[in-house]
Design goal:
By secondary structure, this protein is α/β, with parallel strands linked by helices. The chain is 32% helix and 20% strand. Helix 1 runs parallel beside helix 3. The radius of gyration is 16 Å and the shape is globular.
């Protein structure tokens, strides 16, 4: 039996571009056979800097959909906290896996750091830094030494992610490969994610699986059809 985990999904409670509530996202992915889902709501200036109150109150807001989805889904879906981090002065996005609520509360304003500074902090705390949709228009190529991985399949039908280019780049530099639906809208489905032999229940387990390479990248939907991509193993 294979277990399917979504690695890139947004909810309307936090991400301005998200148009589906956390309970509705959970219901959608449960119906589509996913066993786990990582919430990767946007963490950037236009989200964080517009929130009122203390840092702890800001983080109450940011993690609210994570707790809402966990409570709603119960044991039907393993809900894992992640984020899509964007630093000031750039439109590059980075998917952060293994992040915890405690880390978010103890480290304010991550978006004001540089990629290099944050990557060091992330690695000290057991996290992975994966560049999201790295070859979408407007995205800047960064030093691969600062990355753990690349999203080599981004399933959103809204943009040309040039997924094969991302995969070739990841292979060239030996980066972890990930797949995600980049879910935002009610007309989307779960087009991406990873397939594993055991269910992934926590951020720590997710980091371990991604480092191991013992999984299959799940790729379907309009982007996969357009680029001729099907499920493929994470290991080179």
């Amino acid at each position: 039996m294979q277990f399917k985990t979504e690695l890139h999904a947004h909810t309307s409670e936090v991400s301005p571009c998200g148009h589906v509530t956390a309970p509705e996202v959970a219901e959608r992915f449960i119906a589509e056979g996913y066993s786990s889902l990582v919430i990767t709501n946007h963490y950037c200036d236009y989200v964080i800097d517009n929130l009122k109150g203390s840092w702890q109150e800001k983080m109450d807001y940011y993690v609210y959909p994570y707790h809402l989805m966990k409570e709603y889904a119960g044991d039907r879906l393993n809900v894992i906290l992640g984020c899509e981090l964007r630093f000031e002065g750039s439109i590059n996005d980075y998917l952060i896996y293994g992040i915890t609520e405690e880390f978010l509360r103890a480290n304010p304003d991550l978006h004001k750091m540089s990629l290099r500074t944050f990557a060091d902090l992330a690695h000290e705390n057991g996290m992975l830094v994966v560049q999201a949709h790295p070859f979408r228009n407007g995205i800047t190529i960064v030093n691969p030494a600062l990355l753990d991985g690349m999203e080599t399949f981004n399933g959103t039908p809204s943009y040309d992610g040039r997924n094969p280019v991302a995969d070739a780049w990841a292979q060239q530099y030996g980066l972890i490969r990930t797949s995600g639906s980049d879910f935002h809208n009610p007309d989307q489905r779960g087009y991406g994610g990873i397939l594993t032999s055991a269910a992934i229940r926590t951020g720590e387990e997710l980091v371990s699986v991604l480092k191991s390479g013992n999984y299959t990248l799940h790729c379907e939907g309009p982007a996969a059809e357009r680029e001729g991509i099907t499920d493929y193993p994470a290991k080179y």
